[in-house]
Amino acid sequence: MGFALQLFFTGIGIGAIYALVALGFVLIYRATNVVNFAQGDFAMLGAFAMILLAVDLNWPYWLSIIITLAGLIVFGALFNLGVYYPLRHRSFLPVIISTIGASILLENGVLFAYGPAPQSLPGMFETQGFNIGGVFFDSQYLLILVVTVVMVALQYLFFERTLIGKKLQATSQDKEMASLLGIPVAMMIMLTFIYSATLGGLAGILVGPILFVSVGMGSSIALKAFAASIIGGFGDVTGAVVGGLALGVIETFGAAYISVPYKDGFAFLVLFVFLLIRPQGFFGERVAEKA
Amino acid sequence: MTSGSLITPGASGVISKAMLARGLYVVAALVSVGVANFAPFSAYSLNILMQASTYAIAVLGLTIVLGYTGQINLAQAAFFSLGAYSVALGTTEFGLVFFPALAIGIILACVAGAALGLTSLRLGGHYLAMVTISFQTMLSLVLINWVSLTHGPDGVLNILRPTLLAGYFTDSGHYLALCTAVLYLVGYLVWRLRRTKLGRAMQAVRDNELAAGVVGVDTYRTKVVAFTLSALLGGLGGGLFAGGFRYISPDQFTFSESVVFLTMSLLGGVRSPMGAGLGTGLLILLPEWLRFLKNIYLAVYGGAVILIMVFMPDGIWGFVTALWRRLFPIAPITTGEIAPLPLTQQVARADGSVILTVSQLSKHFGGLKAVDNVDLAIARNTVHALIGPNGSGKTTLLNVMSGLYAPTSGRIELDGRDVTRLAPHQRAGCGLGRTFQNIRLFGAMNVLDNVMVGAERPHNPAGHDASGLERQALAALEFVGLAARAHETVASLSYGHQRLLEIARALAGSPKLLLLDEPGAGLNHAEKEQLVWLLNRLKGHGLTICVIDHDMNIVEQVADRITVLNFGRRIAEGTPLEVLRNPTVVAAYLGEVRLATP
Known about the structure:
Number of domains of chain A: 1
Distance between the termini of chain A: 51 Å
CATH topology of the domain at 45-327 in chain B: ABC transporter involved in vitamin B12 uptake, BtuC
Largest sheet of chain B: 6 strands, mixed
Number of strands of chain A: 2
Largest interface: A-B, 47 and 43 residues
Structural class of chain B: alpha/beta
Strand content of chain B: 5-15%
Oligomer: heterodimer
Number of helices of chain B: 24
Strand content of chain A: under 5%
């Protein structure tokens, strides 16, 4: 029982990371109707920025986090301008391929700088964690959970209670109507990319100390986050969070009880099953394909 | 297949361009195969050429699925690995000779492709991207971890080549010649595919899936076939690859390799087999040329992908052909004698019998009753107009009639047959044609091919053979006055001509009933007069038409009967005179007014 609880805790922690990246996917998808295949690389960049600042340059951890997030804000804007904006009037296919290109560029750029050997990032806290009733609560996992809850809550407040959040929602629902109402659509999409990049970077900062920081970490997280958002119901914010958490737990239990080498396969197996039985996911696809 | 057609190029040459191209292709193939067979290549060059020729076969699969059909496949390396591992394990572990092992690999790839396609092609594009990535990732995991079967990360050594002809192909040069010959053959077939019924159906799906279905293309089946063919070529390429290198390992077939295949096809030009060859050759040679960039090469390459998408969306070959077209525009064609369009296949009988019956039809969107309990009967050989203020449910009714929306309740009968549950392409097969309010043509296909898709609807009484259908398509173009522009691109037509082309596309399918959704929208005065003339000619030929339009001028001039809708309900029906004097109709259009007595 203690072992199962331990697995559950670990699974939720990893799932929270998938949820954060999945949120970024969903927001960009809602704003632009395309899937950003470089979403996971935002997390990879976040983690490597921490390696550079907190490890290599030995700057204070909190300062490194702030600078990393600020860097990703700028990066999100550049990404929007370079990868999405020139293709905004085209079908989803060229955009998807362009984001795949961006992913290759980023991963190999970092590979060039850091080489293939995985780096390790220390955790934010000195204490490893504490033990309650045979379950070890790792401090980094707890931090991930707290940050995820806070981010989801903030995002909810932002989208539902602020004018700019409402404008973002309007943009994602009907770009033409939004622009007729005087909402600067291009700016809203830019903001979406910035926010998604920051969210991805945050996921990278949080997950870095748990996993090894490597060039490929982003795509593997992103694939699972994407799977999570489909399982939850593509385009749905709650779905992304629930799907991410569910996937983290399934994966952890699968690795413990079924097979370690096939750990990365469970997410896709679950995805397959969902696509066959319930393609609209837990919560139903909110954004239909716009004809 | 333009051979034996009625079309002769404007500048009358003795040899047609198609024949010239075919001749050049055969010469190029013979030369390449000859060189591969006899030239004393170094082992290094042989490796590069072997990789290029086998990769190109797999990339041609992407030409079919992505270029022709517009569906993404991010698992081509996985299908490639199925072919490669079948040959590798078949010849080393299971005692098979090369070709049976290759056949097994191709079958495996096809089965996997069909299974993936059947499950995911009903869903949208991003699902397909995700499903193919999932498949790719899982297959890679299996190749690495199922060590007892696949030898795991160590890979498979000493793969055998064909033993045919006393081991002739065991020599690397001769084997390369074999691969080259297969490549040229596959390239030719893919090239020809574009001008076949299946190829046109694929392109129609790519350009406008909705219209393709309404015109008579089974879109789902077409996509599954395209995906399976793509997997087939992946398996074929992979099998030949394994024989070529005689050693394979799982890291040659990862997701990033699938991305490489994708990039090759996009860089060269995804819509043409020439592009597949160009892109593959370039991306295999590029790393050799860019050795000085070695470590940063892949990053440069990722950047190149973005730049290609932004600046050369149709790839190198697309860029070149576009340039060529700008220098040498397509001349109008002269056609031979075109037989008149056999419109009145079902002998005209204006006997008042009904061809389409709509009974108590409703379509609700949540609480909105867009169509509410509507009855409609369209008599044979009449023009029936459907009018009503904006938002009265006219187009929704038409969409339910043509099968784009499933009705909430009610029944539709076409020529005595219940079609309520049929898909759009099945209704087209029953003889229902339609056009759209916002023109939906197949933008990247030429004028004639657009109409050919219409002519190729299932059960077209005009016939099944290609030349007969081409005559039918040309006759339909001639009927609307566009025959001379048959070879031009859709984009070069004016808005009014595009509307006519859409009507021609529907006519080519010999419809029993033609549904026209606001054919006059956006036309100028002269074009509207032309439209009225066209509709009256169609009526004269005995075609049954149901037309929606706002322009009462048009409606009055063509309609025999008018049905008026308002808020999804039928509020009046009768002859134009009766209907336009009906106070309820006047009120619906102009608001409640007290009719002044003169």
